[in-house]
Amino acid sequence: MIEVTTHACIDAFAPAEWNGLFPHELEAHAYLRAIEHAGLAGFRYLYFAVRDGKRLLAAVPAFTTDYRLDTTMQGGLRRATEALAKVFPRLLRIPMLSLGSPVTERCRVGCVPDATPEQRAAWLDAILVRMETVAARENLGMLAIKDAPLDETAWQQVCPRHGLRKLPGLPGATLDLPWPDVDGYLASLGAATRKDLRRKRRAGAALRIEWRTSLDGIADDVQHLYRETLAHADLSFEELTPAYFENVMRGMPGHAFCVTYFEGERLVAFNLVLHDAERLLDKFLGMDYAAMDRYNLYHVSWLENVRWCIAHGIGLYESGQGLHHEKLRLGSTLRANALWYRHRNRFIDGVFARFEKLARLDRFDDDTPAPPHQR
């Protein structure tokens, strides 16, 4: 008999049991556990599971938070809502239950490898029914799915049945790396881009670059650079803690690196990356903004990641969301994501439907700084 259950901790699942549903997923059991124990303010984590007896068929992470309605607004409208929030701090916040994670690249429902498309859709449907029950019990007004991949058809089939509407999300970017060296990669780009990257590469040559497996001796500097980057971001959903970085590095040995960039003895940038034998996932880039242009830190770190992937036989560089026009210029391919949402109150939901264009993430372009946890 098929049953859907809800769990408050990833440790309700054995790592092998959970990871078996998510083959080739870097943000798997160990990563979710690192998030769960990082003490991110304002989030509570849930996990939905579909079982047939004792056999785990499907699962997906989820979270609850008080979602601030102006999270994706910009300019004068954002300044107006911030002034309003100072007077009425609860006015713009709605308790929300969302599938996905505040600190993962996309929301996937993991299923047993032999699942048919019909079974995947049926299990997702059962999860959404359970999700609505949990939201009603806990009086959570908003239902959402964060960063659902558009190339997974189950979302398109099932979400509309539950009244969920689709908004474009920020696309993710990937770069295939079939070349034998960085010069081969540069040769694949347009002449102007190639010349620009070579110039920026020379400017960054004075930096000392280290691929580290721990944050020993630099944890405070890493957090300082992260917070400086966060302060420059117009779009941010969560605020990371020192424990997040430490947990990921400690909990994912062999799969997590902190790439550091030193000017003499001073740390001017760091890049948290995850990898396996097939791909490298760029998670967080923190920079000293006074040194950013002097050393072209963004592009120097990009080229360093390309170099490292090629040197280690990794064929795919996944650079996440944000700055998608620049990533296209650098040879990447974009992968579309969607945000699905609905308010449980029909009247409020109708109001959101009329004004949802104000919250569209695809309004963000390269003139807007990328979220601090993305490239």
CATH architecture of the largest domain: 3-Layer(aba) Sandwich
CATH class category of the largest domain: Alpha Beta
Unreliable spans: 73-78, 83-88, 365-375
Which term fits the overall shape?
Answer: globular
Radius of gyration, in Å, reads 21 Å
Beta strands, count: 15
- Report the mean per-residue pLDDT as an integer: 89
SSE layout:
Elements: E1 2-7, H1 15-19, H2 29-36, E2 44-52, E3 55-68, H3 75-87, E4 93-99, E5 110-111, H4 117-137, E6 142-149, H5 153-158, E7 165-168, E8 172-176, H6 182-187, H7 191-203, E9 208-212, H8 219-231, H9 242-251, E10 256-263, E11 266-275, E12 279-287, H10 289-295, H11 297-311, E13 316-321, H12 324-329, E14 333-335, E15 337-343, H13 346-355
Helix pairs in contact: 2-9
Outline of the structure:
With 375 residues, this protein is an alpha+beta fold. 35% of the residues lie in helices and 27% in strands.
Molecular structure report:
There is one protein chain. Helix 2 runs antiparallel to helix 9. A hairpin with a 3-residue loop joins strand 11 and strand 12. The radius of gyration is 21 Å and the shape is globular. The protein is of the alpha+beta class. It has 13 helices and 15 strands. The strands form two sheets. Strands 1, 2, 3, 4, 5, 6, 7 and 15 form an eight-stranded mixed β-sheet that branches. The chain has a seven-stranded mixed β-sheet with strand order 9-10-11-12-13-8-14, with helices on both faces.
